[in-house]
Amino acid sequence: MTSARPAHFAPLFAAAALATLMAACSSPAPPPPAPPPPAPVAVVPQVNLSPRVVEQASAYRAYVDHASAISPGFTAGDDVAQGLKTGAAYEPQALLRGAIAYGAVAALQDPAFVAGVRKYSGDPEQRRTVAYEIMKDPAYAVGFNGSASAAGLVIAALGADGQKLVDLGRSVKQAAYDMQRQAWSKGEVPGRDGRLATAKALSSTPGLGEVNETARLQMAVTGAAPMGLSAQTAGPPYTPVVIKSLAVAALAALGYADDASLGQVMPILAEPASASCLNMSKLNLYQCLAVAKPHYEDVFCLGQHVLLDTGHCLMAGAGVPDPIEIKAVSERKAREAAELAKTSSKTKTRARKKG
């Protein structure tokens, strides 16, 4: 016969089961999973231009400032000799590199252009790709937002420098004629061969920038001390000098114009057409000095082949026409048109008489 569990044990079993269930419910919950690691933060480089490139811009700035300070009020042969030394003191390729570098610093003063470039700097691979495209073809920089306003700053800066030299050159050239009333100006230049050799030596030596100007330009690159430039927006087409200035500025905004990238940046600072113009200015200067004898002829060489020619090269590189030459061309075309109209009128008059 099967034995039955006493009825009075049933509540005990029920209480034990309830206690077990409550104990299970009161156990601490397992800890939540650890949060995922933070996403890697892309390092966005600062706007940076190699000190060597900034030094080139500073050397360019030093030459323009010193040359534009030459006074046409010569009173003795020593004044003329010093003016020639100051004006001849640039190596054409170095001056051109400095002009493009200075143009890049000017372009970096445009916030819209810098922002238009730096929107591609967040992703390292995209930044690298864009920089490579600029290095392959500097004209790629024209496609960035803000390039037109940045180009306006480049054109205005380089064009103004060239115009200063041209204006001074005209004054110095005029002084070569005016001073012939002074006896000393007709005296023969002493050591003529030596002063030609000096001009050639100065023309083969790259200039140096000044410490304060170099520091100022470096701060302008980073935005710490803006240059306060202003200019009208200038649309394309642009000259190669302007395009290359924009390209170097764009590389600086991407962080690819530092010392590590000099091998790719320095070739952009060359431009054959402007280099040829500056070289021709030097050759004309040498020929002028080779035949010049009195002091006033040296003044002519300085005014025409140092200041005027160099200034015109800078203006042409920036795409800025000389307003006086534009006026002269317009007047010549007007004379030609008037002469043509006069000839045509005479022809018609003769034809009517024959009829």
Q: How is the secondary structure organized here?
A:
Blueprint: H1 10-25, H2 51-67, H3 77-88, H4 92-107, H5 111-118, H6 124-136, H7 147-178, H8 192-203, H9 211-222, H10 240-254, H11 262-265, H12 272-291, H13 295-318, H14 323-354
Short descriptors:
mainly alpha; 355 residues; single chain; disordered N terminus; flat
Walkthrough of the structure:
By secondary structure, the chain is mainly alpha-helical. The protein has one domain (51-321). It is built from 14 helices and no strands. The N and C termini lie far apart (160 Å).
Summarize the structure.
The protein is mainly alpha-helical and 355 residues long.
Major sheet summary line: none
Fraction of residues in helices?
55-70%
Total beta-strand segments: 0
The secondary-structure element order is HHHHHHHHHHHHHH
Structural domains: how many: 1
Mean pLDDT: 88
The poorly predicted ranges are: 1-7, 9-21
Number of helices: 14
What portion of residues belong to β-strands?
under 5%
Global shape: flat
- From the alpha-carbon coordinates, what is the Rg to the nearest angstrom? 37 Å
Beginning-to-end CA distance, first to last residue: 160 Å
Alpha-beta classification:
mainly alpha
